[in-house]
Amino acid sequence: MERDELDKRVVPFARRWHVIHDIDLARLIADHARLRAVCDRLEACADALPGGISDAEADAVCSSLSAIVLSHPQEENAVIDALFARHLDDPLTATLVARMRARHLSDAVHADDILAVLRGASAPCAEAFGYMLRGFFDGCRRTMDFTELAILTLGGKRFTHAAREMLVKALSERATG
Length: 177
Prior knowledge:
Strand order of the largest sheet: 1-2
């Protein structure tokens, strides 16, 4: 802080920013792992078509999908807000945060469509359902990658070494896996 001697007021020396620790990102990375597991399960269902999905598998997938769809966007938005809400006056930050939220909304709409099929409220042909499943899990995977890349971009030099390593490791494991 610097003091303006003429006005006797405090002038901020620099914008305050939050250092991003690995603990700030741990829940987000864990949620992404959970969502990725659901995506893998949905991919297996799509691969099983047109043979169909057993009732037990449909119930299990339905349960895990609805649980993650309800909690993930709110939890992820809370992390993003905690890290970047103070910086929404920056056009890049505002744009990336808005894009992350829009992707969450799109993924939730697609998840609702899949849940309707799994619960028997809708009955598309096997090809259409396979297309829905593939669109959903591919979109979710892209959303997770986009979110992690956006956090890396917006976080810049604010990351501790451990936090940066956590994000980079998560991204690189998926790129090679």
